[in-house]
Write a structure and sequence with these properties.
The complex is a heterodimer of chains A (194) and B (196). Chain A has 194 residues and is an alpha/beta fold. Chain A is 20% helix and 23% strand. In chain B, strands 3-4-5-6-7 form a five-stranded parallel sheet. In chain B, strands 1-2 form a two-stranded antiparallel ribbon. The chains are: A alpha/beta (194), B alpha/beta (196).
């Protein structure tokens, strides 16, 4: 079923389809970024494809490749019950110039999915009505799911308290977990009274 | 945790039928405070399910005088931080804490609130003590209701003692002491250090 769909795309967009492959019954079509919107619109409108549902839209970062990002969209046809995975490769090694046309006007669910893709990877979508960060706060610098984002880099909104051993995790010593009345190192009220 | 030491300093005076008791003012005040902890549940994540379990009749922390939830920080004494605190949520938590009137206590419910748990990443505050002072840590993912009750009793003990230091609830069952768990033995042999 989906194989016929791949052949259909190849016939319809002979210059745009870069490669196709299949794994475990899932068909993937990689297209030129410039024809991303046209292929998506064809998949939605054509009666043989009839992709009424955009299941997910996200990206994958391959830092060693050029272009660097692979934007992935999963489509599902509610009427026909077939699926297709569409990919486009964008961005240079620095992650700049990663741009695609938005598909918001075709599937409304693409709005938040593209915002998340922008938030996490920095892929920009031309024509998106409201391309802001969706999960991270506006003060956030960088895109955390890029492979070159340092794993231990945090950007706190509230400055951390200035107390000694703030990075240390509880427990607090040999009396960990003891009630206060039994803590031997404790300077309790009993000692104050005596 | 075991039974608590007798902490009351009250002395019952024998009288002619109508007895009376003498005590210290601080002790009487602490006794009143520890059994009337109005709580503010700051529930953000899956630990909230366990919080519901511990507040419902089977475990029922209202038996320990921690019954009344107050969804206004001005009226509450105990801030339950239940669940993961993200960097985006940290200003809200800090503001809630600052709005509470003294005296106030904070209980970190679960591993995420205590130290961030396995969320060692860009989005999570690694423990609420990074932004607000915390009194009681209840570890567990999520903690058993018994552990939460242990934490509540520990907090009451702390209030009675007038202690300002934080404390952590010790697990009733420590997996590291269970010789039958092959995983622990494997880890122990690999690290080759004495069990804690």
């Amino acid at each position: 079923m989906s194989k016929a769909l791949v052949e259909l795309l190849k016939k319809q967009f002979p210059a745009s389809v870069i490669e196709t492959h299949s794994l475990a019954g899932d068909e993937t079509v990689v297209v030129e970024p410039s024809s991303w919107k046209d292929v998506a619109r064809f998949l939605k409108d054509d009666a043989r494809a009839d992709m009424a549902m955009l299941v997910d839209l996200t990206a994958v970062d391959y830092p060693d490749r050029e272009p660097r990002f692979e934007v992935v969209a999963h489509f599902y046809s509610l009427a026909k019950g077939h699926r297709l995975r569409l990919k486009a490769r964008v961005g240079d090694v620095e992650g700049e110039g990663a741009e695609l046309d938005t598909v918001c006007d075709l599937w409304a669910s693409a709005n938040w999915a593209e915002r998340e893709c922008f938030d996490m990877f920095g892929v920009r979508f031309r024509g998106h009505p409201d391309l802001r960060r969706i999960l991270n706060y506006p003060e956030f610098i960088g895109h955390p799911l890029r492979r070159d984002y340092p794993a231990d880099r945090i950007q706190p909104l509230v400055p951390y308290r200035e107390i000694p051993n703030i990075d240390k995790i509880a427990p607090f010593g040999p009396d960990e977990g003891m009630p206060f009345g039994r803590q031997t190192h404790a300077r309790g009220i009993d000692e104050d009274a005596s | 945790m075991g039974e608590l030491k007798q902490t009351s300093t009250a002395v019952i005076e024998p009288g002619g039928g109508a007895g009376f008791a003498t005590t210290k003012f601080e002790a009487a005040l602490a006794w009143a405070q520890k059994y009337s902890l109005f709580m503010y549940p700051f529930v953000t994540a899956c630990c909230g399910m366990e919080f519901m379990a511990v507040s419902s009749p089977r475990y029922d922390f209202s038996r320990f005088g921690s019954e009344a939830p107050r969804f206004s920080p001005r009226q509450s004494d105990l801030l339950w931080v239940v669940g993961t605190i993200t960097q985006r949520q940290a200003p809200i938590l800090k503001r809630i804490y600052e709005q509470m009137a003294e005296p106030k206590w904070v209980l970190a419910f679960g591993t995420c609130a205590s130290c961030g748990g396995f969320y060692d990443n860009y989005s999570t505050v690694a423990g609420i003590d990074k932004i607000i002072p915390c009194d009681i840590y209840v570890p567990g993912c999520p903690p058993r209701p018994e552990a939460v009750l242990d934490g509540l009793l520990l907090l009451q003990d702390k209030i009675q003692k007038g202690d300002r230091r934080p404390a952590i609830v010790k697990p009733r069952h420590d997996p590291a002491e269970d010789q039958n768990l092959g995983l622990v033995q494997l880890r122990r042999s690999r690290n080759s250090r004495p069990p804690v």
